[in-house]
Amino acid sequence: MAWLDELSAGDIAAGVAAGDFSAVEVTQASLSAIDARDGEIAALIESCPELALDYARRIDERKAQGQELGCLAGVPVSFKDNMQLIGTHTTCASRMLEGYESVYTATCVQRMLDAGAIPVAKANMDEFAFGSSTETSAFHPTRNPWDTERVPGGSSGGSAVSVAAGEVTLSLGSDTGGSIRQPASFCGVVGLKPSYGAVSRYGVVAFGSSLDQVGPLGRSVSDVVLAMQALTQAGRDRLDSTSQDCQSDFCGTLNQGVAGGRVGVMRELIEAEGLSDEVRDGLKRSIATFESAGAEIVDVELEHLTSAIAAYYVIGPAEAFSNLARFDGVRYGYQEPDCETLAEQTAKSRAHGFGIEAKRRQMLGAYLLASGVYDKYYYPAQKLRTLITDDYNKAYERCDVILLPVAPTCAWKLGEITNARQMYLSDMFTISNNIAGNCGISVPVGLGSASGMPLAAQLQGPAFGDATLLRYAHALESEVGALGVAPAFFGKGGEL
Asked: How far apart are CA 226 and CA 167, in angstroms?
């Protein structure tokens, strides 16, 4: 017998195709792991055993009929709870949408299902993706499986934890300013933010429409590659006007190595104050790894990198205010009872339906878009966006990918950061990528010598350079090794 913890997405799909085990058996192992583990980490908002087993039976029926199976056949997957999936609720971890039942399925979710993935659960998140620790969820905080007294990062914290704790093999998260890469870093898994437009956003509840991107989290780069193959092989989605045709043979180029390639670094950033010694050591080890693999290390300059956070906290809240205006308690969402007028009902529904951080960002967005303020902040932020994008374009003339930290430190203790500004700064190295629309990935590079917590390096690539980015990430992982399931949870439930 095998443990689900030991199998990659490729192993599972191959095993189901070969008849070594059935999709139902894999699904039952995943559900068993959830039952045994989720009480300690609270990674999930909703598990859906009946739906999961129904999809698993369909895979086994296709196998019995000799039909071709997808690249993710039988692979258990969780989906961040801002993604629509018929048969589940989509709450965005907010009281505003508590009990809301999905009436359609998001394109990104459907493409995973079309590839044979099994929808096992909806993952916890920061409310409406507003946060960096998964502590703003209206239902419960999620805990880091490497140390349950620490945060998992956010806003896709539940997605990262469900993978790191071995409840599922893959998860889909969303990344508006680092919300895939930062929790992946904190939890010791691989997290990819694809290029803007590479993956359809149709059916994903919007935070910042010009910044949001859906991407996969897995315990290895090869697992993430299989997910990207599933997400993009059908080409452009006509239901998302920003969707682009990003079909690529991600699997075929993965093992081509990086000899003769160029990795850009900002040496002054690596030595800057504010980085923990553990993070700095992880970056230096990553540089040495690329050099030993035959890549050239080149110096690059991103002049406006440190200003990206200022632009983000103008553009992001402005777009959030616009997107969340639809939640008024009339058409759907929380509705305050016993109100005498529509105006009173709308005001109270929004006041009581949204949490503190959601209200903070919407109020900031309302202010930034107000007459007399708009010209002062929003226009300059968009101009800065152009400068940031130009910086990246110039840098990529000198290199294939850029190596950066994911976050200044490893995961902090639950409740340790209460200051909103300090929390926002945890995304200072990831935000610029969303501003420019480029691709980025977090790759584990070991454990901190003092904290014992996962460390990661961030690689960033140019827009639609996702295949090259994944190749460099795989080369790094091949040398340092994947971390796998958090030790405290390995083998706890989930036997096939």
From this structure: 18
